[in-house]
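pls design
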C-alpha cells in the first residue's frame, strides 16, 4: 500500500510592526537590567540610612519590571513570527 498525503505549506511572514514593538520592550528592559541591581547594591551599602528599605523596594521593583518587559518582549517577538492572521 502506498500512502500519499497532500501537504500545503503556507509562507509564514513576520509582522514587522509587532516585531518592532517587541524589540522596543526589550530595549526598555535593557537599562532596567543594569539600574535595578545597582539600586539594590546601593541600598545594601547604605544600611545605616533611614531610606534603606525604600531604596531596596524600588530596586526590587525595577528588577521585576525588567523581567516583565523581557518576558513581554520575547512573547511579542514570538507572536510576530508565528501568529499568522492573514486568513
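designed seq:
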Amino acid at each position: 500500500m502506498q500512502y500519499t498525503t497532500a501537504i500545503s505549506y503556507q509562507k509564514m511572514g513576520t509582522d514587522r510592526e509587532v516585531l518592532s514593538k517587541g524589540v522596543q520592550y526589550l530595549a526598555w528592559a535593557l537599562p532596567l537590567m543594569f539600574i535595578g541591581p545597582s539600586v539594590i547594591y546601593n541600598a545594601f551599602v547604605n544600611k545605616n540610612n533611614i531610606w534603606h528599605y525604600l531604596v531596596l523596594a524600588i530596586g526590587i521593583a525595577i528588577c521585576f519590571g525588567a523581567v516583565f518587559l523581557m518576558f513581554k518582549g520575547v512573547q511579542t517577538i514570538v507572536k510576530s513570527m508565528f501568529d499568522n492572521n492573514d486568513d
